[in-house]
Amino acid sequence: MTEEQRRRNREIQKKVWTNHELRKKHGQIHKGQIAWNKGISPSKVTIEKQKATYQRTLLANPEIREKMSLSHKGKKRSEEAIKKFSLKMKGHKVSEETRRKISEAQKGKIIPEETKRRISEMTKKGMLEAKRLGKQIGRKKGIIPWHKGKTGVYSKEILERWSKSHKEKMANPEIRKKVSLSLKKTYASHPEILRKMSEKQKIRLSNPKIRQLLRENILEMYQSGSFPKQTNTKPEREIKKELLKRGYNEGMDFIHQYKFMNKFMCDFCFPKQKVIIEVDGDFWHANPIKYVGKKLHKHQIKGINRDKSKKAYISAVDNNSWTFLSFWESDIKKDVAKCVDRIEEALAKKR
Is the pTM of this model over 0.85? Predict the structure, then answer.
């Protein structure tokens, strides 16, 4: 059809369907009639044709898309419709073939920034509405979740699939960076959330069973090689912070993460004074105060042997001209200033 014919058809349709009497008559004529195609599933070829036509004619036209969006804006489904839909979907399971198709269709799709912004706004509105309704119905703090204490809520297969998918995603440095930036933005704008999370985490980690489980999980990851190498740890940051506070310049006075003689990686080095500083974690390096008489893990034994080799090599090289200092994580936590005093004493002797 030409554009003129299409325009005329649209105008005729508008005139017909804006007449409420005509619409009412049309509805009464067809009331109770069974559709000719009810129960007949269309062929794959027909579905593909319909899909191609829809995408070519409607979705390709931004004006039509805008009209469709506006027509649905502000419309809310009735409670009855929501109830019917929830009953219909109850117990409904999506087949593996459908899941696969959805997954393939979504792969490689780039969501426009405008869409992301709209989704974010809608989510915020939804959360505020849920909070308001929660206050209205008198929902109290500390309500017990429906699945608390229940085992087998999610099957082992689903949990394994989620875990595998999460690991694959987080292995991508770009995704990790995006997640990190997103969390930083959230916490920067909502410091209250960060404070609450921190309190919950402290309570959680105070449980010795949880700490043991986390440690076992990390050791398994460490053994498999999936655990990333830990650099710039919290005790290291504390030492660095104190050094900078006392007027030492990184890069000029000291180097953080220094490769000694292309053999050992050291935490801190003062190259002019020939002083090496190591920060040792209580668990990984087996602090004797904490682990005396206890059975050590093989990684701890390995760490102790590596520390001995490192200390012996650094102390003996260049006619014993290098000074080697090590500090335990617990000592830094207790009094970081005292540890840095010891570093300054060693530097003064070298001067």
Answer: no
